[in-house]
Automatic annotation (TrEMBL):
One of its GO terms (biological process) is response to oxidative stress. Residues 552-657 form the Thiamine pyrophosphate enzyme TPP-binding domain. GO terms for molecular function: 4 iron, 4 sulfur cluster binding; oxidoreductase activity; thiamine pyrophosphate binding. Signal peptide: none annotated. It comes from the Bacteria. Residues 280-384 form the Pyruvate:ferredoxin oxidoreductase core domain. Residues 599-614 have a biased composition (Polar residues). SUPFAM superfamilies: Thiamin diphosphate-binding fold (THDP-binding), TK C-terminal domain-like. Pfam families: PFOR_II, POR_N, TPP_enzyme_C. This is Pyruvate synthase.
Length: 769
């Protein structure tokens, strides 16, 4: 079809170019043109791509932004705060529970008045877990003291990111600014977008660095400052007042910046986006991506003679109270559509704030209907827009609002469709076979384990049913089931967020045949600790007698996909408290569940979506995290490593782990598993690749029992040790490392593998090391 170029291209005074990109790509594109100093980040869908795109551009030398992968969102917020105090420009992106995890840091940054820009790619807040777009995370941001500007499409994402840094650094504002867009709608939607053609024009618009404007800078040795002091009551309220003044200043400053931007680019972003509101009698207030759809509905209603209009804010902090009241002065009925609920408040946050605006400006006549819609990424179509207007029109016809608050688009529960159990509980007798025996050597205090030939264990039922949604060749479930073959009796499992969790629990189905709990990346160990201690206390009080338990549960936490980065703190806490449980890490060397970003378990030089390979970068820049050794330092009774390539060894260690977890305290195990999709390897080669990782001593097999290290498989003694390069060439993500141009990185990686192996051998030879 033909294109009306005047409608597609905005005219301005600056040279522009047209691209075809998504919202996430445009956030990254704006950041690379601004050329921020620092981005501290942690992957979470759907915002993860922002860091990925920046890293890809970094690998090809398109910008100088230093990308710092944090151990979690709380850490990423701390990185950004520290960097902002040091006088440069700072950028970040997050979503949903990731934002909630960093939220403690948000008022610190605004309360001490250090500018930065955070892209919130809006997504449902768990639980239950949902990764699709709504505004439940955005509504948590309303009271953090950050100006919040809104983006209805990828063009707005680009433009608002350019304007956001200028707003944040304005002397009348000097606050961190949030740019909010809709996850999986705007973030992944491809659209034509106009951009500045030249970086110099972006810099000319944005202006000088804050330090040159006299703003605080901890690196200015001639002007030492104290950041974030303890304040008593009189000083603290004054500080908050000054922050409040700065927030309200942000509205007029944004209006000034948007006028400048209009002149440069031809694109206009007023505080309030009004559509056919000049004589509207019924209207809908709605935000971001849905606000474009509602305009078509307005046009359709106008064709029927209905005086309809819509309004959508481009800024919600500060809330454009006066502008909204003015826009609605002639409206008789209004539906406020909230893409999140403020549970118990009879309306979402926008409903309450719109009502407050009307009340403040003496409008008590308008009938306001509140509807919560689109939760969990539920699509918003034109017919939903008609329904929103229908609620307002019904009120007009009745002369009052019949149902002031309700949800739109939900399905009422049907008692006749109650879910029924598909699989019967596994029989204890099938789980407790007696084929595995564990005895304690009274002289040494160590355990002796006898296991039958592995074929004898195949009759034990699988604890995870077939039919899950894992990728072909995924090593998680072969590794987990092999480990579970060594566990006798009943288990209660907790899974961190990750591939193993996501692919086994798509509601209303579950692949778990034993009791299963989910908690987020960071807090699984603490959660299972609570379950463990409740079990023992209820058992002590005799409250579990009716359950006819034939044996004690074995409690197992499964973590992976980088879960021992963000989850390491609670895991160490559980270890120090020595709860009777097992933490089992499946190590696939990255955040595979969010798209193969680097984690601290990613080895040096390996390619991921945030450690790309190019002429300016050769994969991950630092060495991998040795979680087994870290946990061993907590002096827990048993630590082990294992692999499916050595099945007898893993089953034996599982039996030991169960004994210690039931009788002594916490156990930590780490198994290396393949991820063919993101390792860029053949599905059928999983066991071969894992075997090569063991044979080259990158992933040695050992256990640490009561502080004594034993190497359980030594490839040198077997005459089977192979060069590290033999392992690396089996995977597409690492083949570049054996090329001459990456020789320095390869040498550093080989040296680190050897250093860790030699140190492990020394520990195995001297029990007190």
């Amino acid at each position: 079809m033909s294109i009306e170029i005047k409608k597609e291209v905005s005219l301005g005074t600056v040279e522009q170019r047209m691209v075809y990109e998504s919202g996430n790509e445009m956030a990254a594109y704006a950041a690379h043109q601004i050329n921020y100093h620092i981005m501290g980040y942690f992957p979470i869908s759907p915002s993860t791509e922002v860091a990925q795109f920046l890293d890809l551009m970094k690998a090809s030398g398109q910008h100088d932004v230093v990308l710092i992968p944090a151990d979690g969102e709380h850490g990423s917020a701390g990185i950004c705060y520290g960097a902002s105090t040091a006088g440069g420009r700072v950028f970040n992106a997050t979503s949903a529970n990731g934002y909630l995890y960093m939220i403690e840091q948000m008022p610190v940054q605004s309360g001490t008045r250090f500018p930065m820009v955070l892209n919130l790619v809006c997504r449902s807040v768990s639980g239950p877990l949902n990764i699709h777009g709504d505004h439940s995370d955005l509504y948590y941001a309303l009271n953090t003291g950050w100006p919040i500007i809104m983006c209805r499409d990828p063009q707005a994402v680009y433009d608002m990111n350019i304007m956001a840094i200028k707003l944040a650094e304005d002397p009348e504002v000097r606050l961190p600014v949030m740019v909010a867009s809709d996850g999986y709608f705007t973030s992944h939607q491809k659209r034509r977008v106009q951009t500045f053609a030249h970086r110099k024009d972006v810099h000319a618009f944005v202006g000088e660095l804050p330090a040159k404007l006299g703003q605080p800078d901890v690196l200015d040795r001639n002007n030492p400052i104290t950041v974030g002091p303890y304040m008593n009551e009189p000083d603290y309220i004054n500080n908050c007042y000054q922050q409040s003044v700065a927030m309200y200043n942000a509205e007029k400053v944004f209006e000034r910046i948007s006028r400048e931007y209009l002149e440069l680019t031809g694109r206009d972003y007023p505080i309030l986006d009004l559509y056919r509101m000049e004589d509207a009698e019924v209207a809908v207030f709605i935000m971001n991506s849905s606000s474009e759809i509602i305009k078509d509905v307005v046009d359709q209603l106008r064709e029927k003679g209905i005086k309809a209009g819509s309004l959508a804010p481009n800024m919600i902090r500060p809330f454009p109270q006066k502008a909204i009241a003015e826009a609605l002065k002639n409206v008789k009925a209004l539906t406020v559509a909230d893409r999140a609920d403020s549970y118990g408040a009879y309306g979402g946050n926008m409903t309450q704030e719109v009502k407050a605006a009307l009340f403040t400006y003496n409008n008590s006549e308008i009938m306001v209907v509140s509807r919560v819609y689109g939760l969990g990424g539920k699509d918003f179509y034109a017919e939903d827009g008609h329904a929103m207007f229908g609620y307002a029109l019904d009120s007009l016809a009745l002369g009052h609002v019949a149902v002031p608050f309700d949800y739109h688009g939900h399905t009422a529960g049907d008692p006749n469709k109650k879910m029924e159990r598909v699989l019967n509980p596994m029989k204890f007798e099938d789980l407790k076979t007696g084929l595995i025996t564990v005895t304690k050597n009274e002289e040494t205090g160590m355990l002796n384990v006898k296991i039958p030939p592995l074929r004898a264990l195949t009759k034990k039922p699988k604890r995870i049913a077939p039919g899950h949604g894992a990728c072909p060749g995924c090593g998680i479930f072969s590794g987990l089931e092999l480990f579970f073959k060594g566990i006798e009796g009943d288990i209660v499992s907790l899974f961190h967020t990750g591939c193993a969790m996501v692919v086994t629990t798509g509601y209303p189905y579950s692949s778990h045949k034993a009791t299963y709990i989910h908690n987020l990346f960071n807090n699984g160990a603490a959660t299972l600790s609570g379950v463990v201690e409740m079990f023992w206390e209820r058992k002590r009080r005799g409250e579990l007698d009716e359950y006819n338990l034939k044996d004690d549960f074995t409690f197992v936490m499964i973590t992976g996909d980088g879960g021992m980065d963000i989850g390491m703190g609670p895991a160490i806490g559980a270890a120090l408290r020595n709860h009777k449980m097992i933490i089992l890490e499946y190590d696939n060397e990255g955040y595979m569940n969010t798209g193969a970003q680097q984690s601290y378990s990613t080895p040096m030089g390996h390619r991921t979506s945030t450690s790309n390979v190019g002429k300016h970068q050769g994969g991950k820049l630092f060495h991998h995290k040795d979680t087994a050794q870290i946990m061993a330092a907590t002096n827990i009774p048993y630590v082990f490593t294992g692999s499916e390539a050595h099945p007898t060894d893993l089953v034996r260690k599982a039996a030991k782990a169960q004994w210690y977890a039931q009788n002594v305290g916490l156990v930590y195990g780490k198994i290396l598993i393949t991820c063919p999709l993101n390792w860029l390897s053949e599905e059928k080669e999983g066991s071969t690749i894992i075997s090569a990782a063991v044979e080259c001593c990158f992933f040695p097999l050992y256990d640490i029992e009561q502080g004594v290290t034993t190497i359980t498989y030594n490839p040198e003694d077997k005459g089977k040790r192979v060069p590290v390069a033999d392992w690396l060439k089996t995977m597409g993500k690492t083949r570049h490392m054996i090329k001459p141009e990456y020789a320095e990185s390869m040498k550093m990686f080989e040296d680190e593998v050897e250093r860790r192996w030699v140190r492990l051998k020394a520990k195995s030879e001297h029990e007190f090391l």
